[in-house]
Design a protein that fits this description.
There is one protein chain. This protein is α/β, with parallel strands linked by helices. It is built from nine helices and seven strands; from the N terminus they run H-H-H-H-E-H-E-H-E-E-E-H-H-E-E-H. A seven-stranded mixed β-sheet has the order 4-3-5-2-1-6-7, covered by helices on one side. A hairpin with a 2-residue loop joins strand 3 and strand 4. The protein starts with a helix and ends in a 7-residue tail after the last helix. The relative contact order is 0.11.
Length: 317
């Protein structure tokens, strides 16, 4: 073996060296030792204690300033909401709603909202409150002249909490709740209405009705996955050419199966949380969020319309 022969020659050469020569040979490869007059560092508990207290003081000041900012911001928004509630309130009169928006230069043709069924409100009572919010927003849209409203709730349709109770998310139940609210706003001149949901037959009342759509998280990404699988199978079976698959085709299929792209999306929660909202439908949507808000309110709805009227839509090439 060449390696073993070289090792034996190296060991013979090393054996010929004396101990001082071996030390000189290894000295460049050894770490540098500290000078003999160097003293070890002494522990400084007072300095470490003062440094820790300084860091604690800085953290406490930052936390206090941020807490004050949050408190003042919440107080400001509460006062602003009360002022808007006094100056602008619908009083269940469509004429007042039209008066509040008459100065706006444009209105969304398709308005979408995200509602949240909280964990502490699970059950039939929570679903009734959710339906009441849907009915209120539908009445506001009808009074403002917005022809289409889509409502997104993450959990979607659920079975009723009692076997003898009807599912509150059923189209007929939703229609009754919205129709009752519209009757309270419009009296005898109730506008026509159409209730739709993906994969569920629609419920229509009257000719040329306004539309109200409902969707859930399962109608978002899963729809894209199903559409991708369908287009792939059709392409493999030579029923559809790859060149025929375009953005217009995907947009048409998703708009038909779920819903079209809304012009304005309103979040009634304090944070911007889309909660699995269908991603394809919000590519060019104006999103409005009211800070420190924890419920559906006419003031938030009105401010969102004013914000949309001032927004400039700049579409790139």
């Amino acid at each position: 073996m060449v390696a073993s022969k070289e090792t034996q020659v190296y060991r013979k050469d090393v054996d010929k060296l004396s101990i001082p020569e071996r030390e000189e040979f290894l000295k460049p490869y050894l770490p540098q030792s500290l000078p003999s007059n160097t003293k070890p560092l002494k522990s400084q508990p007072i300095r470490h204690f003062l440094k820790a207290q300084l860091h604690l003081l800085a953290f406490t000041l930052m936390h206090a300033l941020f807490s004050l900012y949050i408190r003042f911001r919440q107080a400001y928004h509460i006062v602003l909401d009360r002022v808007f509630a006094i100056l602008y309130y619908h009083h269940r009169a469509p004429e007042l709603i039209k008066q509040d928006i008459q100065a706006l230069t444009k209105l969304p043709q398709h308005l979408s909202v995200i509602l949240d069924l909280k964990e502490e409100e699970q059950g039939f009572a929570g679903l009734e409150k959710l339906l009441d919010d849907v009915a209120e927003i539908s009445a506001w849209c009808a009074g403002a002249g917005i022809p289409m409203l889509s409502v997104y709730e993450r959990t979607g349709p659920e079975p009723p909490p009692h076997p003898y109770l009807e599912n509150p998310w059923a189209d007929s139940t939703t229609h009754r709740a919205v129709a009752s609210k519209l009757h309270a706003y419009f009296g005898r001149n109730v506008p026509s209405l159409e209730i739709q949901a993906p994969h569920v037959p629609s419920f229509q009342d009257g000719e040329d009705p306004g539309q109200s759509l409902s969707s859930a998280a399962e109608d978002g990404r899963s729809t894209l996955v199903d559409l991708t699988k369908t287009l792939t199978e059709m392409s493999q079976r030579s029923k559809l050419s790859a060149n025929d698959i375009s953005l217009d085709l995907i947009d048409a299929e998703i708009s038909e199966s779920v819903m079209a792209e809304p012009d304005l999306l309103i979040l009634f929660g304090p944070y911007i949380q889309l909660q699995g909202y269908p991603p394809w439908q919000i590519r060019l949507t104006e999103i409005y969020n009211a800070q420190d808000n924890n419920g559906v309110g006419y003031q938030v709805f009105l401010r969102a319309l004013h914000n949309f009227a001032k927004a400039q839509m700049k579409f790139g090439r």
